Amino acid sequence: MTRTPITLLALTGMILTGPALDGDTPHSLLREQFEDRVRTAVESHDGVFGLVFKDLSSGESLSFNENLAFTQASVIKIPILVELFRRAQEDGLDLEAPVTVSGDDFTGGAGILRHLTPGGVSMSLRDLAILMIVESDNTATNIIIDRLGMNRINQTMEELGLPGTRVQRIMMDRRARLEDRENLSTPAETARLLEMLHRGEILDETSRGEILDILAIRKDGRISRHLPRGTRVESKGGSVGGVINDVGIVHIGERAFIVSAMINWHLDRDAAEEAIAEVALLAWRHVDRLENFNRYGHRK
User: Which comes out higher in pLDDT, residue 59 or 296?
Assistant: First the structure.
């Protein structure tokens, strides 16, 4: 089958962008193969799959349903984390200020705090933030949301050019869920937020570095599932009924790439998780070749 050189490939909602392809070259054929395999993984999944892949070195990107609004589940904790450190940097919020966790704070779902003695635990806002990301602790998350205010979090996201990223309820709020008040974002906006953190476009170096280090703490995730042990992955996943998400920055040598993957309407949790893990592995293999092979496919 003859392939037509193009600079913008749009197939079934998927967009692949990058340098112009001047006829078939080893790199262009490799990229076509990568696009075909990702498209197969996305389209074969029984659910709505939103995806952004971006190589942060070359700018090459691949996207599918990237501007659809998806329920974020615990991925919304990344914007909350960003706002927490912004307030510390710009407004003097003390991240070391102790917070006593009472029984009234306890929230169901993920986390360890709700299993501890009411009023017997006191920890800093920084430590609550680490629990929020690494253990996805919902009690810690709700305490931080209450301290920051939903409106302030949303205002910051709008100022960053991310108007579709919105916190509209606390964790485990069943009434809000039944009223369709979900915490929302899109694969494109979440990828953009990660890119701004990576490139130092928001916050100072210290705050940005601490956020990325918290996101890099090893956790069970879909993006990292099949990647080589020791790969640095700055990520946050999340799941609620019918929804599986995972977003992150993956590092390979001097390169890094973003995977922002969101699935909803799924009927099989295991299959949804594996679909994201498969796409992340395909992305890793593609970028690994670009990093560790020369232009003719000879491993360096």
Answer: 59
Tell me the DSSP string of 126-171: HHHHHHHHHS--HHHHHHHHHHH-HHHHHHHHHHTT-TT-B--S-T
Angle, CA of 234, 238 and 240, to the nearest 5°: 175
> Looking at the domain assignment, is residue 237 inside a domain?
yes
- Which CATH number does the domain housing residue 37 bear? 3.40.710.10
What is the DSSP code string of 170-230? -TT-HHHHHTT---EE-HHHHHHHHHHHHHT-SS-HHHHHHHHHHHHS----STTTTSPTT
pLDDT at position 78 over 70: yes
Confidence check: pLDDT of 199 > 60: yes
- pLDDT (tens digit per residue) in 115-154: 888 888 899 999 999 999 999 999 999 999 999 999 999 9
49 is a domain residue: yes
Q: How many CB atoms lie within 10 A of CB 2?
A: 4
Per-residue pLDDT, 180: 87
Structural domain contains residue 270: no
Under 8 Å between Cβ of 218 and 250: no
Indicate the number of domains in the chain: 1
Output the CA–CA distances (angstroms, integers) from residue 104 to 101, 113, 119, 140, 201, in the order listed.
8, 12, 9, 12, 38
- CA pair distance 101, 107, nearest whole angstrom: 11
Domain of 168, in residue numbers: 8-254+280-292
Q: Residue 63: its pLDDT value, please? A: 97
Lowest mean pLDDT among 67-81, 104-118, 244-258: 104-118
Residue type for 39, please? R
- Please name every residue paired with 100 in a beta bridge, in sequence order, or none if there are none: 122
